[in-house]
Amino acid sequence: MTPRAYRCSDITACLSIFDSNVPTYFAPQERGDFERFLQEHAAQCAFQVIEVEGQVVACGGLWNCGGGRASFCWGMVERGRHRQGLGRALAVARLHQAAADPSIRRITLSTSQHTQGFYAGLGFRVVRVVADGHGAGIDAVEMERVL
Fold first, then answer.
1. Predicted structure pTM score
2. Residue/partner pairs of 61-64 with CB below 8 Å, 24 or more apart
């Protein structure tokens, strides 16, 4: 379960992971944004994937926003593989990545009500909730963790 750097050839697998999490964790209209992110910004956000038996099953990135802040971006695990430790492994890898950069003092993320408990267990705290902020029935739960 060791993350590796995203490669352009991973795009189909990452989009499939996204699709497996619609509509509970992502709104269908977010797919275009995710696809554009993969094509244009994944490299600068240190986007990573986790493979199991040669298949990409999880992905996520860490964007250094500057000013002492970084943000988790587009973290997800294939729906059928939830609760197997993949999301935790990916999040911990990104936390270690942030901790290794002395310019980063705070990590933020925007998640949903469905996963805010997961991130709270990793030391993140809720700073704001926007009802339906990610789509109908998917609140935007903004969280942060100070390093």
1. 0.90
2. 61/6, 61/94, 62/94, 62/97, 62/98, 62/107, 64/101, 64/103, 64/104
